[in-house]
Amino acid sequence: MVSESICLNILYFARGRTLTLTTTLQVSDPPSKKVSSHEDAFTDADLYRCLLTRYPMPEIDAAIRWLQYGQYISESSATIRGPFWKELTQKGRDAADAKRLPDEDRPLLYQEQQPYQVFVAHQFNSDDTALVSYIRDRVLTPVGFELVDGRAEGLEDFRTSIITKIRRARYFLCLVTTRIELVSGTFASSVWLYQETGVAVAFGKKPLLLVEDSIDPQYVGELQSIYEHIVFNRSNHPQVFDRIVPRLLADLKAYNIPLPQTNT
What is the rounded CA–CA span in Å between residue 254 and residue 74? Predict the structure, then answer.
């Protein structure tokens, strides 16, 4: 995935940075050394050391290529043998200063991820229809987000379809509702929900769990201790679910992703 956030972080890293290089010139005997300085420049080693704590290497690689193809970054070398470095073009400096990429380039981002899609893992039963409809029609759609779920489409294998949808959606919500009543009087939920949550985590998502209050802690306690969760019941869910969107909007703002277009 190439996102605006990682591209901007690379531009921010380079903007205002002075790179000093020492080049050994073999044309003289003994070889002489030349020291040069370059503004808004960096080596790959410096960049990767900085960003590898925040992004996987393949994402950094893809973002650098995207910025080079988009003419935000150019590559230079002192000799054919190096040393090599990258530096911002004027387009790259302008984007770093504006803290956003030009509107004409933004549609070229997010080729593998839909920033306004929310995958909602839920049970396909009549008891939960109203809850899912509320999340879709009253919470997400009015502010420009799209709900997708594990419903199979056409002849595509449903497992492949679910995995693809989870991967492409930026956000993952899990509606953990009752399924099987236990001897204690509390309930367990569908094992499919836990499996879909595991897929989301594997793709680097940060699940938000919507947990019905009658679910036995034994069946969701570990998930709740690791991932952000909201407890609800069938009476208070409108007020509770209204806490979802501020979390999504805060994430978009934190990563410099334009907010979705509202339907109003």
Answer: 27
